Amino acid sequence: MNALALAPGLVHCPGYLDRSAQESLLDDIRAVMRAAPLFTPRMPRTGKPFSVRMTNCGDLGWVSDVAGYRYQAAHPDTGAPWPAMPEAVRRAWDDLAGYPHPPEACLVNVYGPDACMGLHQDRDEADLAAPVVSLSLGDTGLFRFGGTTRGGRTRSIRLQSGDALVLGGPSRLVFHGIDRLVAGTSTLLPEGGRINLTLRRVHPPA
Ligand code: MD3
Ligand code: FE
What global pTM score does this model have? Predict the structure, then answer.
């Protein structure tokens, strides 16, 4: 496996999933989206919608609405439990996370051609000892990351279809986001756009 350490605890694995593994994972995620339809998250307080739509699989899902950000066991619109995490998602965690407990949540972010995600930290998880593992499908996303305080210098890399990213240790709390997509860079999604999965541990192990 090709693994590039971009910062302590931040590892980029370009081409982690080959084309057939991407197609198979996409089938799994389409089934997740049928069971748990995409929802539009909103900013706490203001209610401003995100440009990215989301769903989840696994025991817990990340949601955001006017009341705040949180993990919960039920879909915010249907009230149904989240569908199970596909086997391939679990395998990627076991392969990449280096953490001896299974992921509890897999957030699925769906980007249309003009969607982006502003710089933020992921700190809604009580278990910050576990890494976050990200898998990218579809058009290339320009991923920006900085340090653990806002306003420092940042770097940017291209996340292509099939790439994995592991964010752990000193990089677990770095500021990061997606500036934009690069249209026409993948044929995986016929309609264009990008899907990103983030595999997360929420609670410290019992
Ligand atoms: C660095 N997603 O869902 S994935 C997110 O491509 C999120 O949809 C982006 O940021 C996306 O919160 C970026 C890469 C990523 C994911 C989680 C991280 C980077 C991270 C958690 C901590 C530090
Ligand atoms: Fe994030």
Answer: 0.98
